[in-house]
Amino acid sequence: EIRYGMNIQDYEIPGIIKNGLRKYPEESAAIIKEVMMNHVEEIKRVAKVNKWNVDNLDIMFIGGTSITLYDQLKKLFPNGELSDDPVNDNAKGFYKVGEMIYEKDF
Prior knowledge:
This protein is mainly alpha-helical and 106 residues long. Helices cover 54% and strands 6% of the residues.
C-alpha cells in the first residue's frame, strides 16, 4: 500500500535513516527503527540457524552499516563491539584474500 506518494531517491536514504522524513518525522522514525531492528533480528536468527552460539561468542561489528545499526546490534548482541575501522574492514579483508590467492606482496 502506498500511503505517502513519495519518490525517494537512493542518495536521500542515509539522511532519512538518520533524521526521518520531514513531512512525517515521528511516524517515519518509528518505521525506520522497526525495520532496522527487524534486520538485526534476522541476522541473529540466521546466525543461530547456522549453530553459532551468539550469546557466548566475541562478536565484532564490521562494515559501514554496523555504524548505522550499532544501537540495534548492541541490544541483540550485547557482547559485540564495533571495530576500529568498520567502513574499510571489508576492503582490507578482500585485499588480504587477494594476497593469499595470488601469493604476491602488493
